[in-house]
Specification:
single chain, Nucleotidyltransferase, domain 5, Actin, Chain A, domain 4, Substrate Binding Domain Of DNAk, Chain A, domain 1
């Protein structure tokens, strides 16, 4: 019998956690004795094909063998065009690379706890769309996990915070989650064991990665000003700069200046970065997060006086400018009471305990729902919302102009189910096309097309009504049902043919491929 774990699959670092018998979530250390594992993979060839090395050692190799190292893969989840090509000529999808990280985390937990890991809750940014959520689920399946659910990262952090108070809190909390590659802001009511999301927003392409990129540009400018070459044109040199930029960023969290010795092209260059200049360079990114915070407050119909606590999550919130910006904006001291690197994994572990099969509670060192609820002294209920609107493409009657008709608006409580109505365009029409979108704009150019389905219908006259029911499940995966309103009969129920995701056969093939590898 196996156990369920919570996994934070991060852009920069990942972590795994379980709930102990007393109901307390705890991080499980990896084989290196660390609480987090760098989301970095080195694909080595020792003559028997690719052998993935995951974590800190892979990260150390990045500056020397950059072309063989995959990192920041989370930014490419759900992108069907992205591939990582290894030295052996093998090509891997983002789901497969992510599965290698998940396999490493899974096996580390199994070694530490001496029991198989069978189930997992994996976290995703709240603003991840359907394709990226499904890609994350597929990565878990490829890694050999039964994915109990995908959980929004800010919601996970709020769960961790709520459990840490043992249910002794009745607050409206704003979670500001700035990770390595993504940003989310979520507002929740936390009351005893009830966690109710009111509104959420974010940017899946904004995070500490962008801060690092600015530092890399600053380093490159200083190297070139000293007569050195550009560090951005050579992959190995770029990885040296990337590594040093990360160290400088950490240094600037506690000091006004930080420096590094950059060795490229056989020469050394001393660079010094001032915090004030760094903050000026990243101001536009912080302003973007500020605008999203304000928009989310408006969506929740709240003001700052209604917010009890601003909770910081994600390693990039350690940048002092983030703290300063939020304090000025909210008039409140941001809360750093939970570890920003571990909170999401801890919350995922709580959700895993709540969703795990009851027989897992017979494992002596694993706590399930009863343990969690016993610890906080109340039943636990998590109510999340849709992060993006769900709709369909329709033609306006008068102009035949395409519009995006939103069926399920953003911030609708999950699970959600709504019906949209359309009609046949001409007499004897025998096919009906459903184009499913995700996004909140009426212009189809500014939303994501998830996919479409072509459905056979009887040869009705023009104007025959067709009802299309869309639903979001708890993981925000999309399902579609089409009803013939003339007969009341169901024409089809299906998951849309997603152009951005692997087919079931491809997932099974990848599962065998990655399952046959030894993950180091």
């Amino acid at each position: 019998m196996g156990i369920a774990v919570g996994i934070d699959l991060g852009t920069t670092n990942s972590a795994a956690a379980v709930v102990d018998p007393t109901g307390v979530p705890r991080i499980v250390r990896n084989r290196d004795g660390a609480n987090t594992t760098p989301s970095v993979i080195l694909l080595q060839d020792y003559g028997a094909g690719d052998e993935p090395l995951v974590g800190a050692q892979a990260k150390q190799h990045a500056s020397r063998v950059g072309s063989d190292v995959a990192q920041h893969v989370k930014r490419y989840m759900g992108d069907p065009t992205w591939r990582f090509d290894s030295a052996t000529g093998s090509s891997y999808t983002s789901e497969e690379i992510s599965a290698m990280i998940l396999r490493r985390l899974k096996e580390d937990v199994e070694v530490q706890m001496n029991v198989p890991v069978t189930d997992a809750v994996i976290t995703v940014p709240a603003y991840f769309d359907d394709a990226r959520r499904l890609a994350t689920r597929h990565a878990g399946e490829i890694a050999g996990l039964n994915v109990l659910g995908v959980l929004n990262e800010p919601t996970a952090a709020a769960l961790a915070y709520g459990v840490s108070t043992r249910g002794n809190t009745h607050e409206t909390v704003l979670v500001y989650d700035l990770g390595g590659g993504t940003f989310d802001v979520t507002i929740l009511n936390v009351s005893g064991g009830d966690f109710t999301v009111l509104a959420t927003d974010g940017d899946r392409r904004l995070g500490g990665y962008d801060f690092d990129s600015e530092l890399q540009l600053m380093i490159d400018e200083q190297v070139r000003s000293q007569g050195g070459p550009s560090c951005l044109d050579d992959l190995n040199a770029l990885n040296v700069v990337r590594e040093q930029a990360e160290q400088i960023k950490k240094g600037l969290s506690t000091a006004a200046t930080a420096g590094a010795l950059i060795v490229v092209g056989g020469a050394s260059y001393r660079v010094i970065v001032e915090r004030s200049e760094f903050e000026r360079r990243i101001e536009r990114f912080l302003n973007r997060t500020r605008d999203l915070v304000i928009d989310t407050l408006e969506s929740a119909q709240l003001g700052w006086a209604d917010i009890s606590r601003v909770l910081l999550v994600g390693g990039s919130t350690r940048v002092p400018a983030v703290h300063k910006m939020l304090k000025v904006l909210s008039g409140k001291e941001p809360d750093t009471s939970i570890n920003p690197d571990e909170a999401v994994a801890l919350g995922a572990a709580v959700q895993a305990a709540l969703l795990a099969p009851e027989d897992q509670e017979t494992v002596g060192y694993l706590g399930g729902r009863s343990a969690v609820e016993g610890y906080i002294g109340a039943p636990v209920r998590v109510q999340d919302v849709t992060s993006q609107g769900l709709g369909e493409i329709l033609l306006e009657r008068d102009s035949d102009k395409k519009i995006n008709s939103i069926i399920i608006p953003r911030n609708t409580p999950l699970p959600a189910r709504e019906t949209g109505y359309s009609s046949t365009r001409y007499d004897n029409q025998v096919r009906f096309v459903t184009t499913v979108t995700q996004g909140d704009d009426r212009d189809p150019e500014f939303v994501v097309t998830l996919g479409e389905a072509i459905i056979d219908i009887p040869p009705y006259p023009k104007g025959a009504p067709i009802a299309t029911t869309y639903s979001y499940d708890l993981d925000q995966i999309v399902h579609v049902e089409v009803i013939d309103e003339t007969t009341g009969l169901q024409l089809e129920t299906f998951e849309i043919e997603r152009v951005s995701n692997l087919k079931k056969s491809q997932v099974e093939e990848a599962k065998k491929r990655i399952g046959g590898m030894t993950i180091m």
